[in-house]
Amino acid sequence: MGNQLSTPENNSLRDKSLEERGKRIAIDMCKYVLLVSACAIVIIPLIVLLFGSLKNSNDYRMTNVFSFPSNPEWGNYAEAFTKGGVLLGLRNTMIIVAISCLGTIIIGTMTAFVIQRFPTVLTRTIKRAFLVAALLPSITMQITVYQIIVRMDEMLNILPGNLHLMNSMAAPIVLYIGTDIISIYIFMHYLNNISISLDESAIIDGASYPRVYWSIILPIMRPAIATVLVIKFIGIYNDFYVPNLYMKNIPVVSTALYRFIGPFSARWEVIFAGVVICIIPSLIIFLFMQKFIYNNIAAGAVKE
What we know:
By secondary structure, this protein is mainly α. It has helices spanning 2-5, 8-53, 57-62, 75-82, 86-117, 121-135, 142-158, 170-178, 181-191, 197-204, 209-220, 222-238, 241-246, 253-256, 268-301. Helix 5 packs across helix 12. 23% of the residues are buried.
């Protein structure tokens, strides 16, 4: 038995097993190193942000970014919340987010429903046009978009009621709703997993296409809607370019703290405090909606 166990074949198999085990250990170690590195990339800026928000002007200039403040300055949060206009910016941002998300859900799901359920030459052409528009860099179209908004604003000025797009919340809302092609593609992808037999069964029972959309398609698409809501909320919440260009006199979250940056210096400790305050709503939204996002990812991984 001893000679059989020490044969060259057994030694070769044992060496291969040890080699494979060593490779698996090395791969696992690389995975853990990458995960720890990714966590550090995310957590370290947040720590610097939190420590900086609790320092006064002297501590911020004299100490390094990783040093904890000896005397935490909680007044930075009060100053950012009141003088910085964070409260007013949060209110304006939430109004824009609510209207934009509602419009995106209704228009996006309707568009996806028509394109996916009615494959005609027109819908296929629109789908290809959406793909081309999604591939174009958005910054290259900003001059054209700005000219369109200005022309629309001039047309609205002629109408009674003194309506305006420029320097109002209307322009960002129109842009956030009308230029969101990614959300339509998310809805179309999710509709591929919904069997068309549900539509046919409802139509046989006497339901119209609007009734099929409102009673069957829209409730089933809740995971996709939750995903779009999170993406849309974060995109609008963090957007600085559109509010700064079209709403110069109306503060939002991304522009409210900009007033602390002057031509010669910046109140970075107050800005950091305002950023910490602004992080809280997006964190709450993500924690509340993450279950629906993970369900959507799992649903997209398995397709009948």
